[in-house]
Write a structure and sequence with these properties.
Oligomer: heterodimer
Largest interface: A-B, 70 and 68 residues
Radius of gyration of chain B: 22 Å
CATH superfamily of the largest domain in chain B: Cytochrome-c3 Hydrogenase, chain B
CATH topology of the domain at 109-246 in chain A: Rossmann fold
CATH topology of the largest domain in chain B: Cytochrome-c3 Hydrogenase, chain B
Strand order of the largest sheet of chain A: 7-6-8-9-10
Order of helices and strands of chain B: EEEHEEEEHEEEEHHHHHHHHHHHEEEHHH
Number of helices of chain B: 16
Radius of gyration of chain A: 19 Å
Strand content of chain A: 5-15%
Structural class of chain B: alpha+beta
CATH architecture of the largest domain in chain B: Orthogonal Bundle
Order of helices and strands of chain A: HEHEEHEEHEHEEHEHHEH
CATH architecture of the domain at 109-246 in chain A: 3-Layer(aba) Sandwich
Distance between the termini of chain B: 33 Å
Helix content of chain B: 40-55%
Largest sheet of chain A: 5 strands, parallel
Number of strands of chain A: 10
Strand content of chain B: 15-25%
Helix content of chain A: 25-40%
CATH class of the domain at 109-246 in chain A: Alpha Beta
Largest sheet of chain B: 5 strands, mixed
Shape of chain A: globular
């Protein structure tokens, strides 16, 4: 008992008090900013591994971006990654970053279904489905529940059964072999329910886009309530995205 | 029979790999392994050449520190005698060859699909009708778990045959995570695309896989890595080991309902992955390892930061582990749970920490050293019981060992050589192989180029490819309620296996 108390004492304070305003350490690659500098756009688009850089004018699709930093390494004055981790939105088009406009990525509140604020803002239980995810975003989703990030303080948690859940969080590009289990899991969640895509693999297929081993029908045919970019998704990106969706303000 | 002896991270002409008839190929390679625990198969694969299939085997010799390569050519409609009937460790490799090319075996003990790959020979079979082993009995019952599991983990199906609470048999069916990675390596031609793919083979082993990839390409391109690059990769590999082992110890505590251990070890992982972010902008080190150059030089400032972080980490880590090893309630769950004997591990062909848990020394850092490991006088952590407790103790001691290695590395920082990104041209008509020791065990990447130096074949083997069978056998005669803690103590990769 004494030993347990001693260990507890040694931990000090570990939780992040304000998850809305926390600063990330180091050189985190978050929301990119594109300057108006003139560059060879074809060359710029060519450096991206996932065709996330669109040209005429230059834009970056965060749904495809792996945040590898290759573009900023080769075109440091054209593209800069800020440490802004708030990247989630509910519109696919909202993930496109335009050149010369350094506006933050935010949710379109007009598109949030009424029942989401009404039913889920006090408690949201999620079922995670890894559909060929590489276990990196999965690790970060686990981290959202640790004592540092503690997403549970908002009544948000991951549950063991789809029948206990209010929605699913999909990671991975969705393999052919996971297409049916994904559908079965979604069907087992009672309505109303939400779908969240976490990570560039889930949103666009990422580096796996175009592989014959994928089957992305589920993503294409269902309404997506939240897109959360990242490779992997940072715990703060996930938490802030979900809080925005639920309309939970600090 | 002729064979070619090469070193880790070496490239040779494909034509230099001796070819023989299948019968002597089989006898030679099984002969290398039977009664020779110092040798094991690191890679066995096939590829199409015209109408035939060329089979290549790479056997690692831990005493001689080299790799014995040999090959045979067989026709597509072959019915062959299996290696697996003589050496069980080949079973998964032969199943893959069967799945990809339709080659049949006369005496393979378990010829089932491996991962239902998109390029499989027989597409009439789908993952939904996998032929599970069943026992007809009124006393026994089956328990099916997955593919979607209760936690935030990857998918796979576990089918237990139980007698009451006791597990008689477990069959693990994988393939749900198959993304066609090996073929994507050939289709995506840009280096940054291939590097991104390597980082996404298994997101918990980013450094292990990406280093294997980078060392392989540098070897095939004739551009050996500078000391600075080797330093970064060695340091990052040991940091990755600390981060994952710590996170896994936390998850093991969760599985035995030890809340304090789960919380403390869970938060201890945070400063390590956050340090990766300080160094390279990503908590799981994606973006750090690049072929031929180092985008994030390791500075003196970073060295000071890491020293501070490790100094704070170490006492807290030791304190909670001492408590974990002292509590009767954790020991009763760990000891004699999920046990495997040395002979079982050897037969299965287990690698990495899952082999070292019961006296089987499999560690590329000492057997086929690369990076800066030869400078550490590395001594693998070896345990003697092969149970969950051994795997817990290995993780704990390897974390402390890695901290010691990192302190040694930090005492002697290399000069930054800056950007010198030379274009990389792979040697034509060549075969290269690269082994690294990730936190799970040996990772193997191999590549064959055509006459223009384009990639023709890219092969990846995650340690989990060997080790899943070890988990299936470890839980026999255990209570089914002990499965989660056994599973977590191995923590094998689904995506690394399914590719």
């Amino acid at each position: 008992m004494l030993q347990t108390l001693k260990i507890l004492y040694h931990q000090g304070k570990q939780y992040i008090p304000d998850l809305r305003a926390a600063k990330v350490p180091g050189i985190f690659r978050g929301r990119p900013e594109i300057s108006l500098e003139k560059v060879d756009e074809t060359l710029l688009a060519e450096v991206c591994p996932t065709n996330a850089i669109l040209t005429g004018p230059v834009r970056i699709d965060l749904g495809r971006c792996t945040f590898c930093g290759e573009c900023t390494r080769l075109f440091p004055h054209k593209i800069k990654f800020t440490t802004d981790y708030r990247l989630a939105t509910n519109e696919r088009g909202g993930l496109i970053i335009h050149e010369g406009t350094n506006s933050p990525v935010r949710l379109n509140n007009d598109l949030v279904r009424n029942e989401i604020h009404k039913i889920f803002s006090g408690s949201l239980k999620l079922r995670q489905v890894s559909a060929a995810g590489d276990n990196s975003t999965e690790l970060e989703l686990n981290a959202t529940g640790n004592v540092n990030f503690d997403i549970g303080r908002y009544g948000i948690e991951f549950v063991a059964s789809p029948r206990h859940a209010d929605g699913i969080v999909i990671t991975g590009p969705v393999s052919e072999n996971m297409a049916e289990p994904l559908q079965i899991t979604y069907d087992a969640v009672p309505s109303p329910k939400i779908i969240i895509l976490a990570g560039c693999d889930a949103i666009s297929g990422g580096i796996f886009e175009g592989s014959p081993a994928l089957n992305r029908k589920f993503i294409e045919e269902n309404h997506i309530d939240l897109y959360i970019p990242g490779n992997p998704v940072h715990p703060l990106t996930f938490i802030n995205g979900v809080l925005d969706l639920l309309g939970i303000t600090p | 029979m002729n064979s070619l002896i090469i070193n880790n991270h070496q490239t040779v002409r494909v034509a230099a790999i001796p070819e023989s008839d299948y019968k002597s190929f089989l006898e030679f390679n099984t002969g290398l392994i039977i009664n020779h625990p110092e040798r094991h198969c690191v890679l066995y694969f096939g590829y199409r050449t015209d109408d035939e299939i060329r089979l290549i085997i790479c056997i690692a010799d831990d005493n001689e520190h080299n790799i014995i390569v040999s090959s045979a050519v067989v026709s597509e409609d072959s019915i062959l005698d299996s290696f697996s009937a003589k050496v069980l460790a080949f079973e998964k490799f032969e199943r893959e060859i069967h799945e990809n090319f339709g080659i049949k075996y006369t005496d393979h003990p378990w010829l089932k699909p491996v991962r239902y790959s998109a390029s499989r020979e027989d597409k009439s079979d789908t993952i939904a009708n996998y032929p599970f082993y069943g026992i007809d009995s009124e006393e026994l019952h089956e328990v099916g778990v997955g593919p979607v599991h209760a936690g935030i983990i990857e998918p796979g199906h576990f089918r237990f045959v139980c007698n009451g609470e006791q597990v008689l048999h477990l069959e693990i069916q994988l393939g749900y995570q198959h993304r066609g990675v090996e073929n994507l390596f050939l289709e995506k031609k840009k280096l940054i695309q291939r590097t991104t793919l390597a980082e996404c083979i298994a997101g918990d082993s980013v450094i292990g896989h990406t280093s294997a990839f980078a060392f392989l390409l540098e070897s095939m391109g004739g551009l050996p890595a500078s000391r600075e690059l080797i330093f970064s990769r060695t340091l990052a590999q040991e940091l990755e080991r600390i981060a994952v082992h710590t996170g896994d110890l936390s998850a093991i505590c969760t599985d035995i309902a030890y809340q304090l251990g789960s919380s403390v070890l869970g938060r201890l992982r945070t400063p390590i992955v956050n340090f990766f972010q300080e160094w390279c902008g990503n908590r799981l080190a994606k973006g750090l390892v690049r072929t031929g150059y180092n985008p994030y030089p390791f500075t003196r400032y970073l060295a000071e930061r890491l020293t501070t972080i490790l100094d704070a980490f170490e006492p807290d880590f030791i304190e909670i582990n001492n408590e974990l090893s002292r509590l009767p309630s954790s020991l009763s769950r760990f000891e004699r749970t999920g046990m495997l004997s040395y002979d079982q591990l050897l037969n299965i062909g287990t690698v990495g920490m899952s082999a070292r848990m019961n006296t089987l020394v499999r560690d590329i850092r000492i057997s086929h050293p690369y990076g800066l490991y030869s400078e550490f006088n590395h001594e693998p952590v070896i345990k003697h019981h092969g149970d969950v407790y051994s795997r817990v103790q290995i993780r704990k001691q390897e974390v402390l060992q890695s901290i010691a290695y990192i302190r040694q590395l930090l005492a002697n920082l290399p000069e930054s050589t800056g950007y010198s990104e030379k274009p990389l041209a792979l040697a034509p008509d060549s075969f290269g192989i690269s082994l690294t020791e990730g936190w799970r065990g040996e990772i193997c990447h191999a590549c064959i180029t055509d006459q223009k130096g384009e990639m023709k074949i890219y092969k990846i083997k995650d340690p989990s490819f060997h080790n899943w069978l070890a988990l299936a056998l470890a839980v026999r005669n255990n209570e089914i309620s002990d499965f989660p803690v056994s599973n977590k103590s191995f923590d094998l990769s689904y995506c690394g296996h399914d590719l």
